[in-house]
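=== Structural record ===
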Amino acid sequence: MIKEEQLIELVGPGNVSHDPARLQEYSADMSFVDKVRPEYVVKVKNPESIQKLVLLARATSTPLVPVSSGPPHFRGDTVPSAGGSVIVDLSGMKKILWINRENRVAMVEPGVTFAELIPAVAKAGLRLNMPLMPRKSKSVMGSMLEREPVIMPIYHWDVADPLASTEVIFGTGDLFRTGSAAGPGTLEEQRAAGGAQKEAAGPSSASWYRMIQGSQGTMGIVTWAATRCEILPRREEPFFVGSSRLDNLLDTVHWLIRLRLVNECLILNSSDFATLMAGKEKPFSSLKSELPAWILFFNVVAYDYLTEERLKGQMLDTQDLLQRLNMKTSRSLGGISVFAFLEAVRQPSAEPYWKLRRQGGCEDIFFITTYDKLAGIIEAMSAAAQSRGYPVSEMGIYLQPIVQGVNCHCEFNLPYDPENLQDSQRVKDLAASCIKPLMARGAFFSRPYGEAARVVLEADASAVIALKKVKAILDPANIMNPGKLCF
């Protein structure tokens, strides 16, 4: 076990906390994982201190739990699973290391949030391909490492996007760079030669970033990451399409993305749309009552060159497609302007975080699937909710096409009152019991957390064997967030 004086020697007295109130903050989150109080919270400022901390933890068999985002946390991955753990607080590493418009890339440290990076890249004429209204305290790097879905599938070429190169300190204490950042030369020398640390794969033929993404901090600690950015458009034409039938919208989404006509593109049910956009003038219940069951949002854009010609051509093709599919667009739904919605989804969520606005708590069930399986999956989830007494009408559904629209991120949002023990237990039971029925209908849990991780990995013994082999190489002492996934 690491001693307090050893930590103070590494990072300074003001960066080590053993205060019970501070430790209590990290002992639980908004998820249903068991509470475990850490031993210390250590704020780190640079890769050198992280590397020394990892080496000391390995020598003393002390568990480390890396945390980059601010509260609230939702998935249990930042709650220790072992006693005597040290929280490695990366939120103070706030440097935006590089922004380059020519190569459409930005490089950031772990503590940089969406609220901080969005205006910084905008000054360079860039924007982020980002998740749907992340909380203000969410780490950009943390989001990429968790493979959170992004709202512009046209620029989502691989499931790992927009993550590019990274620097990671494995559980062995070794510092390693992935992708094109691996070398040769320093980052500055690479840039002088025309490099931009934008390629994720490598070094050589290996894709080491895939061992880091989705690992919940069980392999190592990432000290910086590069993210792929996109050019800010010169002109935009956003639209809603409302429908009582989901299959009609899925067919529309397929062709809009396949023909590369749109940038932002996503589907929400009326509950999630109303949760996102409700306000004092338009409360949730009032707004939801005026909405169709399903809402498709998409955005047609044009850039700096041949702006008007491009927009005209894209609009004509879009209108022709929608006419053939017999779908009608709208500029507002329930009194919500499509431009107001576009502005909202390009920014972090206002406080309180949108998923917490209705009842104060929210449990998310999310996975990847294909369009043809969605009807059966929604039916299975609705049946599971009814069997547990959870009102299906309260359930939010978010469908995000990913990887050029070839598959879809499906997310069920279950609002509940965390102060109501009966309500909390009902949602906890539902979240645990729905995993197997959803898997049977075609849900692929590519990044499971908490109880879902146990259920999912129990069904895939070969994946567990492979993961444990990699873990033995990168973290042989099992100090990196032990107890998560299958470790």
